[in-house]
Structures are given as C-alpha cells and as structure tokens.
Amino acid sequence: MKFSVLLDILFDLLSKRMLTAAYFAEKYGISARTVYRYIDILSLAVPIQVQQGRNGGVFISDSYKLPVNFMTKAEYEAAIEALGAMYSQLPEERFLAARRKLSAQVKSETRNLTLSGTPGTILVDSGTWGDTRSFSEKLRLVEGCIRDCAVVEIDYDSRTGEHTHRKIEPHMLVYKQSIWYVYAFCRKQRAFRLFRLGRISAAVLTGEKFIRRPFRREDIPLKFWTDETASADVRLEIASGAFADVQDWLGGENLYEANGKWYADVRLPDDDTLIRKLIGLGSAVRVLSPDSVRERVREEARKIARLYE
After folding, report:
1. Could you tell me if residue 225 is inside a domain?
2. In terms of domains, do 54 and 100 share one?
3. Where is the WCX domain (predicted)?
4. Is residue 224 part of a domain?
5. Exposure winner among 53, 71, 176, 297, fewest CB in 10 A?
6. Angle at CA 162, nearest 5°, toward 158 and 166?
C-alpha cells in the first residue's frame, strides 16, 4: 500500500463533490477492491461516506472542513498565493501539496468560502536583472542541502571582494530585505556563518552528509551589525521623491512628517556601507546630523565629482 496514493485520494475527495471507485482505480492504476481498502483506512480518521446507486460514489462529509472563520477569504488567498510564489522560487512538491490542501477547503458546490481563482497575482523573483534561472536553481540546490543534510562546495565573493573556496553545511535559508542568505556551518572557519546567496558564484554537491548542529535563531546575525559595531544616531531630511526608497530601507515606523517635510531619526552602523547608501539616494536625501557622517558624505561626493571633471 502506497501512502502517497492514500493522501492523493484524500486530497481528491477534499476538492471534489463526489468521486467513484472507478475514477480512483483508473487514475492510480489499482483495482476497485484496492480503492475500497484505501477508503476503509481513510474512514478511520476522516468522515468518508459511500452513496450507493446509479449516481452514487464516495465523498467526504461537508462537516469535515476548517471552520469558515478560521481564516478570512483574503487570508486564504494570501496564503495560497504565497505558497505559489514560494514554488516559483523553490519548485518543491511540498509547496504545491500545501497549496492544494488549502485550496481543497473550498468546494465550489458546498463551501460558503470561495476564492477568486485568479492565479499568479504574486510573483517573487530574487534574481538580478538579466538573470536566467540560475539563481532559482542555486536556491533550490541549497534548500535541498538543508533538507538532505548534504555538504556543498562553494566559491564565494565577500563584500570586500575576497574570493574564497570552501565547504559549508547549510542549516537555514534566511530572506531579509529582498535578499536570500544561507546560514551554514563553514568548515574553513569552523563556525556558523551567514552567506549571501547572490555572492555564491558556484555551488557543487560533494556527496558528503553532515549531522545537523544545534543553533538558536538568536545566533543568526539578522541585524547584520552587533552592539559592538560602531554606530551613529542619524537624522535625515527626505524629499518626497525618495520617500518610498527610504521607507523600504528603514521602515515606515522610523519616518515622520513635520512642517510638510519627511524626516528619519534612526541608529545605523557607522561604516562605509552607510555612506554608499546615502550617496546612492542622491540629492533627495540630506544628512542633518551627525556632522561626522555629513562630512564623509561630502568627501565621497567630491570624489565622485572629480571622476567626471
């Protein structure tokens, strides 16, 4: 007896009003007798009913469903579309199965809750402009390594431009600010490290397996800077044209309006990354304080201007 067939029969019954034993026998290449064996097993946990007669068949009682108020229509749609979006990044069967389960809560003939039925209203694409499917393939490979405890050999380019070759044991994928990272144990450094997926230029399975190492979610450097890192309390004046960009960067909770202008007061890591970010926003963002950051932005702007003299 195949457990996968048992589950498929259950999903079919959840998504259809009524089905016959002949339908299942033809679909799964089994005998009608075997179909009824599956039905008997399912009926131990699910309220399956069999209706005799010419128009009879097998069906699940309409009482077997999530409560209508378990999620709103919008929440169902969001969950189903999110699973579809994840599948576009990681084409794994389990995302489709989960989406199928949620969709199966809605029977067009019997449910009070109906979905819009409009597919593809959400698209997640983490690849760069001009990228082929290579980014998704890399993401899928790393996700598979996490699931299968497989060691992967990578070529990695650090933020400073250093190129290294190393073996890693992927433990978790991290998605933050539209960027994918993999949290992995690095055999070269003999410690956990957070690798930006876009900086992995090559990834090859080694055929080795690893034993998962314990870690806490708090161990993952999601702040990307620690309390020991030099930081600065920065005040920015933001033109309306840059509001959306700054909102994406700092979050709307750090922005406020006063006298018809937008401002931000936020504590940020005081390093070259901050200066490059501020320069990238151009004249639409002005640093009001501190003076040290203002001066570094001015100096960087002078260097840029000299390149075009």
Report:
1. no
2. no
3. 233-305
4. no
5. 53
6. 75
